[in-house]
Amino acid sequence: MFLKQIALVGAVSALMASTAYAGCGLTSGSVRILSNDFPALHAVAAGAEACAGGGVEVTKNQTTEHNDLQVAALTSNPAQYTTAVVANSSILPLMNDGLIRPLDDLVAKHGQGLQKSQLVTIDGKVMAIAFMANAQHLWVRDDILAKAGVSAPTTYEEVLSASQAIRDAGIMEYPFAMNTKSGWNLGEEFVNMYMGTGAEMFVPGTAQVAINNDHGVAALNMLKSLMEYSNPDFLTFDSNATQALWEGGELAIANMWGSRGGAVLDDEGSTEEVTSNTRLIAAPTWGNGSVPASTLWWDGFTISKNISDEDAEATFVAMMNGISTEMVQANNDKAVWLIDGYVPGRAAEGIAATATAGAAPYPMLPFMGALHTALGNELSDFLQGKESAEQALADVEAAYNAAAKEQGFLK
Amino acid sequence: MKHRTFLWFILPSLSAMVLFIALPIVSVFVQSLFVAHDQVLVVTENCGPFGCKQTTTVDQEAMRALKEAAPLGKFNGFETYTNRGHLALAEVSQAWRSATGIGDFVLQVLNLPFYRAVAFTLSYTFVVTPFVILLGLAVALGVNSLPRAIKGPTIFVSLLPMIVTPLIGSLILFWMIDSRGLIGATLQILFDDPDLSLKASPTLTWITLFVYGVWHSAPFSFIVFYAGLQTVPQDTLEAAMIDGATRWQRLRYVVVPYMTPLVTFITLMQLMDNFRVFEPIVGFSAQASATSLSYIIYNDLRGGDSQLFGSAAATSMLTILGVAVLLLPVLIRTWREFNRKPV
Fold it and tell me: Do B45 and A123 touch (CB under 8 A)?
């Protein structure tokens, strides 16, 4: 363990030294990074920090609270951070308030290594550079499925029957779990399930929500049926809780984030029995739908608007160094990279399969956040059996309308 | 003291109070009257790692002009206060008209976020406060009669729940009450019910939060009562003993009356503290079953990708109003007692 860390530190510093030697071609500028806090982003930031030296200064703030800092921090002039690393939901507040700049000229000048799919363009302008992908999909334990005599499920109906078979075989009482903690996590599970119907969440071209219909009711009922096979504490399950259950060998089938793959499949925190039998497979379809019930996510970097052009250029170059092919080669298994040079490993299989099966990206709509919050807050009553699916969806719609009015999306 | 001298005497603290208490409240109030500008939406083509799609975005240029003209946002008056997220006047009157009975009406109203939060907040306040006072008094009396040698360590241990940061304390307990945790597993054995989970049912979650609240706050009332016990006049107690008063009678007719001002003080503090219950809800991940006014303010500010400042401000103002209403009886009582005494 200790030796491994030493080796890792050595590898990272060797990488930094070699790139710092190259100097990234910068002579001046200030690079200030705001990002979430997980290993893949540490690797990206380390790559950017390698450009420090001479007249170039690189600082970073990597925190799970980044979402709550970003708008205020980028509103000030000059902005507190020159780049905010965002996902397809957290870019929206920055877009809505016009806090990030178009990157077209910088891409033309310094973005030769980028693949076209990495460019996130909005209204024809590149607004972010995506570098990694994520999605929720099924995780299965092959040994337990074999013991119960079922094959790996491809639909949620099969998840139900497989869970029942595992229960009937007396292997586990609660073989299934998903991230259903009341709040953001629960909202995301509904969004995933609803996306599996292929229906729109909003009336196209408007901010009018469109989930209070038969698709919504069916999605809720499917969630409730699944919860029959999940531990009764399910409304407190976030990613950390489900990962712990999985690593503890208490689950046979789960719907979890692909980004947890590296952490589960490594040789820490679990047993050989669990890790060797864990397989990450595509998100299931359901109800005769053809689209996987999941949403695709990307993480990427943006450049603040309220900074000097010089800092913007330095930041872009440093971040490009952060997402270089060398970085990917040194950190291959930390994420599903969208960068040239990435070799997909075991942990990436689920996300790749989900994307190939045609899952839709998480809706990048300015009012999506308000709906997500409303879903997260209002659905737990239904899952606890306190109200009907129709009532729960009516509550969501009412809560969304109130929030969307306050944000100016609805009159 | 002359009025003039008095004014100079309190001027520093008065100005600090205006600066740090009154002005922020005024600013929050002003904020609560405004909402975001009407967004100008345009349909554009967005592309990313997973393909291109026609989607709706906000027109930056148009919005910038609006924001520069009125940086606070759009004036909304008291409409944020009356919308569904707060007092929900329209929904409540609709429920009144459509309800089949008073029970149904209450159920419909408790389905609204603000009233649900009020229901838990008030239950928490009125369950935890009396228990904190009673338990604190009991512990103080118990500790007071201990031999001197073990008094110090006992006081220290009794104070521990208050020393632990509320969020940390509740997180630790959250894992202990898990069905595989120390307390959770013990309860399952005690009640002989392998499915018993304190996290799953709303009722048990409420009880867990109440117990946590009493556990966390009892040391505060204990230490206040314990200090009070040291000053109970021994003459009166001895006189009562000579008159043949039992231990219970001495407690009921000498100690408790003597400590009434302390009870008022603790009640005031606890009503205020418990009314803004927040950390245990986050620590116990209890938001599915229990929300409080403070929690919905937090949720407005931290629940999603963007903040609802107007909504949070309106709930804050309603919370201040709630605290004022709650404290009024106690304050009136104190004021009357103060006036009764010859100055």
Answer: yes
CB contact under 8 A, B306 and A98: no
> How far is it between the farthest Cα atoms of chain A?
67
Which chain A residues are closer than 8 Å to B38 by Cβ?
408, 411
Render B64-87 in DSSP notation, one character per residue.
Answer: HHHHHH-TT-EE-TTHHHHSTTTT
A vs B, Cβ pairs < 8 A, gives 173
Length of chain A: 411
pLDDT at B343 over 80: no
Predicted confidence (pLDDT) at residue B51 exceeds the cutoff of 90: no
Measure in Å the smallest separation between the Cα of B84 and chain A Cα atoms.
6
| ipTM metric | 0.86
Q: Report the distance separating Cα A195 and Cα B298, nearest Å.
A: 29
User: Tokens in use for B317?
Assistant: 């103002």
Confidence grade of residue A179 (pLDDT, cut at 50, 70, 90): very high
- What pLDDT does B341 receive? 63
Task: Please name which of A400, A75, A102 lies closest in space to residue B85, comparing C-alpha atoms.
Answer: A400
Planar angle of CA B39, B44, B47, nearest 5 degrees: 125
Give me the residue label for tokens 């071209």.
Answer: A205
Buried/exposed B306-319: b ≥16 CB within 10 Å, e otherwise = bbbbbbbbbbbbbb
Token readout for A72 is 């205020």
Substitution target in A134, A236, A382 with the highest count of B β-carbons within 10 Å is A236
- CB of A322 within 8 A of CB of A101? no
CA distance linking residue B296 with residue B86, whole number of Å: 10
